[in-house]
Amino acid sequence: MSNAAAARTFPKKTAWERMKKWFRILWQQRALVALCLLPLAVVILFQYVPMYGVLIAFKKYKPKRGVWGSAWLDPWYKNFQEFFNNVNCEHILLQTLKVGVFSLIFTYPMPILLALMLNEVKSKWFKRSVQTISYLPHFISIVVICSMLNTFGSLDGLFNNLRALVGLPRVNMNAGTAFFMPMFIGSAIWQGVGWGSIIYLSALSNVDTSLYDVANIDGANRFQKIRHICLPAILPTTTVVLILNTGNIFTQDYTKILLMMNETNRMDLEVISTYVYRMGIQDGRFEFATAVNLFVSVISLILVVGTNYVVRFIDPEQSIW
Amino acid sequence: MKKTLALVLALALLVGCVPFASAEGGTMNREGLTFPELPNNTLKITVTTANWGTDQLPTKMQKLWQEKMEAYLGCKLDITWQIAPWNDFRNNESVNLAAGDLSDINTYSQGSLVNGYGKDEDGDSLVLDIMDYKDYLVYYPEFVEGHVGGWEGVTNDDGTSYVFWDGYDNDLNLAGGQSFSAYAYRFDVLKKYGLQPAQTWDEFKALCAVLKEKIDAGEIENAKYVMSNGASWMAFFRGFVGTFHTWDTTYWNGKEWAFGPIEDNFRTMLKELHELYAAGYIDPEYATDDSADAKAANGNILIVPTNWAGSVQSWNQAKVSEDMEWGLAYLPSSEFGTAWKWGSKLSGKNLGTTLTMGIIISADTEYPEWIVRLIDYQYSEDIYKMLNWGIEGEDFVTLEDGTRTYVDEILNAENPGQALADRGIMASASARTGIPFVPQIFSTILQYSSTEPWWSAEKGWYDGKYWIDTAVNGGPDSVSPYDRAPLTHLNEEESKMKSTLTSACEKYSKVGANQFITGELDINDDAAWEAYVAGVKSQTEDFDGFFKTINEKTDVESLKYYK
Known about the structure:
The complex is a heterodimer. By secondary structure, chain A is mainly alpha-helical. Chain A has helices spanning 3-8, 15-28, 30-48, 66-69, 78-85, 89-107, 109-120, 124-135, 142-152, 158-165, 180-205, 209-217, 222-246, 254-260, 272-282, 286-314, and strands at residues 59-60, 71-72. Chain A folds into two domains: 3-57, no CATH class; 77-318, MetI-like (MetI-like fold, Orthogonal Bundle), CATH 1.10.3720.10. Chain A contains 16 helices and two strands. Chain A has a two-stranded antiparallel ribbon. In chain A, helix 5 packs across helix 16 and helix 6 (89-107) crosses helix 11 (180-205). Chain A starts with a helix and ends in a 7-residue tail after the last helix. Chain B is α/β, with parallel strands linked by helices. Chain B folds into two domains: 25-169 and 352-448, 3-Layer(aba) Sandwich (D-Maltodextrin-Binding Protein, domain 2); 182-342 and 452-562, Periplasmic binding protein-like II (D-Maltodextrin-Binding Protein, domain 2). Chain B is built from 19 helices and 22 strands. The longest helix of chain B is centred in the last third of the chain and has 27 residues, at 492-518. Chains A and B meet through helix 15 of A and helix 3 and helix 17 of B.
């Protein structure tokens, strides 16, 4: 080995030395560490500590005996077995997937489109007005939204008035399942598109304006500028949002579905979250509801990891980890 | 000097500690029963209960209740109240039970569900077994004796009993229905066209046809549909099941325990309702619209078959035109005979037809003997008559024939129910004093309740009262088998199973039934019906097995009690 090569070889650090270095860095950045302590404590206290409660999914839970004191189920997977043996299991899973996937397909791109369109608007007052108006529905309670949907979908409601204008017959849109999906997703878009666009507008505001100047010199039209400047600029953000939204496919806003249910569609609209609510909260079967929700959490984790893997496979720079 | 002072202080400490130690661990005897001694002679407890519209705590009767209780128990009561609105209370009740979150004393409304939290194989329990303190009961047994099977009827198959069930004093011995026992009609419309409420199902269909013609001809102002539901959350068919001799959940059908919505009679009813729907008599929004009360008060509908007792009065108060008049007539009979009414009351002192509401005690409570004694005293005439009638001279007077009547100040008040509630008198049910549930007296409820328009073939048009006229017009044949069911003892697992089955299967059947009514599913198609029945059964692990068990565990001999 030459002297030069020997000089490039560093002695390997021991674990103790690495730890000492880690603590030294922490000490040097103690102000930042102090800032993180409170949020970290909140996460540990409210996200990790309660996790021991998932144990009741495997136990014959008796409140008097507590989580640890309750006996283990025999077999330990009895609650999961009961869920998978339930004849409604397949329907509930499919309905959950259907609502989740359609929600993702239709609600995910809308804020991106709105952000791109607003980015092209030159008039500042118009842009700000549109932004403010589009944010407002985000602050309306879900109960009010569902009440509005119920009123609009009734025989004399707004939606039926619009149908009548174009010569379509009046129908009770709140009954059955035929109009559930358009009303569920349409209202979600209406309520979330403005609020969801904020993050993309923020990303677009960081684009170096000289890029637009260069594009102008090169004779690029608006669509070409969007394609070659704006979209690459927000790509990391869109990717992160997509990965996180994918994890939510099985955990939709169950309160909205619950509020849209009635005696003509209750069983057809059942998704995992409403099922867990019904079994856990209404029927007081905490252990069974915990088992079902644990199953959903595992599926969601797989979806997030899987999506990240796909993204990393396509473009390693865009993946979260 | 210092030594003397130290000695005095030490002695004072000792003297102070000795009675305290005795109070903590000591017992006392009263009437041959052993009671633990209370610190400072004060029973300090927490009570979780509900509010039914009027805050009961500041009322005169609540204060009197506490005074009487303290005098009876011979100790001070220090109660911490946890009170939630009734609807919230009911929504959270099963969660609180599942979480083991109980106060010393708790109002309860979930029927046999509590058995799932009773003694396990090791004897551990979340709730107190009253039978362990049976010797301490003086007044409750009189109400128990009025229940089918007496003590056997209120105990589980392992001999336990976890609830002080809600008592009822039917001093008039009238078997009036609770609700859903009469159809509401627009009397002004019927009178105008020389029509009358239907006595039979065929008459009902014919009446619907006539009214539809009038509506289509624009003869009836504001009217859009012949009929609708009393509220979207109520199963529309609940107003019809009595006519077709079936029911909307698990019930005793006179021969066995069955699930009503899969019976042949239920299918027959759905066929008839589908015919009515197809003919355009039923509001298409009957199952989804929350504004049924407004539709009734605005005159958009002419018949409401499914309604609460009291609905007609509220519609008549909110009506948009002075000419409008809502009234009631007993359910029409059918090929199956006289229509069954719901909730036919038992005679005398009893615990109601279904054991659903009551009071439970935490098994962890420190002084169960005192608490059992306290609850038991609420079943004494001394307490429950006071809370139902109030104070003689102030709230009621005794007439020459010995009967009681509320004072004019209450009866002539703009809202007699509220006048009673403000005093803490339970008859209005808006303020429930004591620790709910305290037994109610039938005659007090009838006293303050105002009259409403009624019709019967014998009397024609007249003013009546729901709980009297459903008894009189229905007659003895209208008492349904499910209101006079035999004894059935279920263990912890079976009780839970019954609760889960009822909840899950009911939800499924409601949706299916509505789909049959609207024609989304074809009620005349055997395959569709069989698929629906299979769907209902699949909502629970072993539907048929459960009904086999429950029927095997039913003591049919106990039916003799009702005769």
